[in-house]
Amino acid sequence: MKFTVLGSGSTGNSVLICTEKTKVLVDVGLSAKETLRRLALVDVDFADLDAVLVTHEHSDHASGLRVLLNTVRCPVYMSGETCEAYLREKLNKTNNEPQKRSDALKNRIEQIESSKDFCIGDVDFEPFSVPHDAADNFGFVAKNKGVKITTIMDFGCFTTLIKEKLRGCDAIIIESNHSRDMLKACPIYSWELKQRILSRTGHLSNEDLSEWLTNDFDSAARHIVLAHLSQRANEPHLARLTAQTALQMRAPLFKAETNITISYHREPTEWIQF
Ligand SMILES: [Zn+2]
Ligand SMILES: [Zn+2]
Fold this sequence. Notes:
Metallo-beta-lactamase, Chain A; binds zinc ion; seven-stranded mixed β-sheet; about 25% strand; alpha/beta
């Protein structure tokens, strides 16, 4: 199994998970055109996609979906609640977008549940709910031939369930959204938006991630990819340094041999393969 983060940040998120037989695009937060360009960059033919999996309806995860469905022919895996929310997302109704979305998804949906296992081709998915202000957001463990890759973005805090799901993984793609200080000092975001991001159903900070890395991470994962970095309230170097420092703070007996990779909104990461 291998994966690449095609793009990640406040403006759009998309991850590609592949085995020899199965290719799953997770979220379409970039435009359809850009998604197709990035698939080509990582040498994957869009016609070979087996599924698009949508974690939640927020535009930075689903805005490219409708147009992409004109080009790709595979089904869309989505929960019922997310689908409903996607169809009534804060949209400009004058251009009839809700109807267009509904038409595009007709006969294309494979309905999943955010806490019930499902499979796509030879990949087993174990989804789990996360605290976020969307209808039904979930993280998931993707499993193939004993390898476990976990993806978790857009969550405000670690829960017991999340900590448990992050055990025994080979790779983890995880949100490191903002530096708390940078967010508080950010002159562009309103007070309300800052409160939303900082809340327990908002986004995970570098500091929250750091605390988990030092105290709860089981050190199984060889790769951790930091994702969903805010372009206004984070700095890639700072996010990496905070995570690496957190790993070094671990008790000597529990040192982790883990590579930290940063994902960017402008370009795909290298493939990480098992
Ligand atoms: Zn997001
Ligand atoms: Zn979100």
